[in-house]
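Re: that backbone. Tokens:
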């Protein structure tokens, strides 16, 4: 129902949702006024780390995936899906467009991961 939850969280899942705007609006709908949305997701790394991170993501990680799990393609998909996901500022704007009042984010590990917080006003 509407206005039901105090908190909604998603970790490493929003990136795989086809219609992120619809998903964010639905998360807002089910939150009580003053409720918080927490989104933990891979994000855009700090500029000095972009080249080494790309090398790791597109070469090293799939190689390990092949050697350990026998599946390089899943790890290539992971790297590609991370790059297709909105960066920190874009996701912040999407959350605002979905109707969240206060929206903020905190980079973790130099932006490899970011925690976004949105409050339903």
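Recovered sequence:
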């Amino acid at each position: 129902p509407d206005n039901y939850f105090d908190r909604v969280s998603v970790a490493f899942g929003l990136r795989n949702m086809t219609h992120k705007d619809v998903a964010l609006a639905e998360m807002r709908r089910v939150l009580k006024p003053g409720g918080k949305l927490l989104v933990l997701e891979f994000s855009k790394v700090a500029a000095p780390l972009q080249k080494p991170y790309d090398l790791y993501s597109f070469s090293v990680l799939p190689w390990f995936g092949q050697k350990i799990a026998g599946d390089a393609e899943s790890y290539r998909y992971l790297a590609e899906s991370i790059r297709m996901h909105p960066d920190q500022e874009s996701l912040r704007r999407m959350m605002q467009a979905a109707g969240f009042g206060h929206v903020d984010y905190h980079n973790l590990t130099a932006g490899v991961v970011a925690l976004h917080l949105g409050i339903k006003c």
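The first strand starts at residue 5 and ends at 11. The helical segments are 20-30, 50-69, 72-84, 88-97.
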